[in-house]
Amino acid sequence: MKPDVGTVMQGFFGTLLGDIAPHLTAEYSMGNVGIMGMMMFMTAEEYDRAADIRAAENTELRSLFSHAATLVDDGALKAKLAAAASEKEGSLRIGELNARNAALGGLLIELQTHVEASDASWAPNLEARIWDHLVAATERRKLPLPSFG
Prior knowledge:
By secondary structure, this protein is mainly alpha-helical. It has helices at about 5-20, 25-70, 75-85, 95-115, 125-140.
């Protein structure tokens, strides 16, 4: 896309903070402009990586579910896990990726609840894998703060 969304948003961020905010006299207005600029910066970053993050998480969750389906003893949960594991992304549109990510996240909660209640020998390893996924997903979604120097 021309012009690039990230470039435009970061340009607006720089203009708001560097050119407009210093000329405002009211602290409230300066604060609002600063927040708006920061949101533009973060929006630019999220725009650039949103599809990649969601597609990676969805792929990772499907792999986790494929493995879990071979272990869990609950027939209904096993079927849900197997069905989710065999899905493919229908679209790379953010709204659709978000919807799939939310549905897979709901299934992850169901799986984690089952694993935490289980005393099976495989449960601790699967629980650790779930937590590893959650930590990695959190790391992927961290937004950087802009450098001012």
